[in-house]
Specification:
The protein has about 140 residues and is mostly beta strands. It is about 5% helix and about 45% strand. The chain has a single domain, classed as Beta Barrel (OB fold (Dihydrolipoamide Acetyltransferase, E2P)). It has 1 helix and 8 strands. A 5-stranded mixed β-barrel has the order 1-3-4-7-5. β3 and β4 (about 45-55) form a beta hairpin. The longest helix is centred in the middle third of the chain and has 10 residues, at about 55-65. The protein is globular and about 55 Å long.
Length: about 140
């Protein structure tokens, strides 16, 4: 069995990098995705979903170095379920309302912001970034 998730959005805050006890770098950041549609009553509805994204290893170091709050990114990865519920991580806000956190472990992070925005436009970091895009047909190994 296999699943993958692709999200495109903007960072809600600067990335935070830390290290595991074994020295493995880990970077976390939040990404907001938005959509707008017209509801049954004719009112425009704006919907924003937040994802907590985690990157590991060299990818974590590069994301921490180049991404910042507001950067536009494409994330390809897998949902990480809450071990207790098997779904999103559930929590209670300070005002007593319920909240849920969708957590994603990234396999690929593509920077979509322009260089003027402080990003590295079009750069990809992760397993898929070494694809054969633009390679002559003779160089493709299959």
């Amino acid at each position: 069995m296999f699943h993958t998730l692709i999200i495109v959005g903007n960072l809600g805050r600067d990335p935070e990098m830390r290290y595991t006890p074994s020295g493995q770098p880990v970077t976390s950041f939040s990404v907001a995705t938005s959509r707008q549609y017209t509801g049954n009553n004719g009112q425009v509805v704006k919907e924003t979903i937040w994802f907590k994204v985690t990157t590991w290893g060299k990818q974590a170091e590069i994301c921490n170095q180049y991404l910042k709050k507001g950067s536009k990114v494409l994330i390809e990865g897998r949902l990480t379920p809450d071990p207790n519920t098997g779904g999103p991580r559930l929590w209670t806000r300070q005002d007593g309302t319920a909240g849920a956190s969708f957590e994603v472990t990234a396999s690929t992070v593509r920077f979509l912001s322009s260089r003027e925005d402080g990003g590295v436009a079009g750069a990809a970091v992760g397993e898929m970034s070494n694809s054969f895009v633009g390679a002559p047909e003779d160089d493709i190994p299959f």
